[in-house]
Amino acid sequence: MCGISGVLNFNRKPVSPDILDTMIRMLAHRGPDANGVVLERELGLAHARLSIIDVVGGQQPMHNADSS
Known about the structure:
Helix content: 10-25%
Largest sheet: 3 strands, antiparallel
Number of helices: 1
Strand order of the largest sheet: 1-3-2
Distance between the termini: 28 Å
C-alpha cells in the first residue's frame, strides 16, 4: 500500500516544506521503501512507496521531462 498527500494554498502563499515533511512522515507506515516531495509555490505533493512489484525498477518520479 502506498500513500499520497498534498497541499494547495488558495491564497497563493508558498507551501511550507515542513508541512509536507510532517505529512509524509505520517504516511511512512504505508510506504517505507521510498518517498518524494514536489513543491511548486502554492502546490505541494508528497508520496510514500511500498515496494511489492518491480522492487528494483519501480522508482516513480513525481514529475518527468514531459511535465511543465
